[in-house]
Design brief:
Elements: E1 4-5, E2 14-17, E3 24-25, H1 27-40, H2 48-54, H3 59-67, H4 71-85, E4 91-92, H5 96-104, E5 110-118, H6 119-129, E6 137-141, H7 152-158, E7 169-173, H8 176-185, E8 188-192, E9 209-211, H9 214-222
Helix pairs in contact: 1-4, 3-4
Amino acid sequence: MTAARIPDLPQPRALLFDWDNTLVDSWSTIHHALTVTFEAMGRTPWTLEETRAQVRRSAREAFPELFGPRAEEATRLFYEAFERDHLTHLRERQGVGAMLAELAATDGLILGVVSNKTGRFLRAEAESLGWTPLFHRLVGATDAPRDKPARDPVDLALAESGLVAGPDVWFVGDTDIDLLCAVTAGCTPVLIREDPPAAGEFPGHEPAAHAPDAATFLDLLRRR
């Protein structure tokens, strides 16, 4: 399987990655924590498929809409359940560790993470996988004044790198929120997921390139 790309895709000086379900597989843990939360709130839990479709924003952004005046309580319950399980069930997506090692060894290329996972959980997971030294900075939800899709976490991820957000910074993720964040910050949006983008799926924030997996993303970079 080959990656789609446009001829003038800019050479990257930095790669900013989403975390959940871009670099690691975390749907089962997120779904379990949401199920615990929904049940405690007296709500019917989402199915796994609904969780995959609905989860985009951070809890800070999404829970007030979902749970209204009980958002603070729901947030506490969600993170209590998540913290119990997230390191036990943490798995890298296929080929990601090797991909990151090769990218981190590339001269002149900076790696970072911009995630809507709470920062302390994000950094604990990176440490557990042995990936922390590979990244210039790991930015999670609540680390910046606003979370994705605002540009604040992108600017924080690049702080003290000598770079600013622009086309030579690729933002790589698997959801519309990632692509929208890339466009909002002026970065190059790259979609990494098995399914290619459907026509009209990302209006106004279409990916500049698509790769179905880590190996194909590496091939895309090598052919620059």
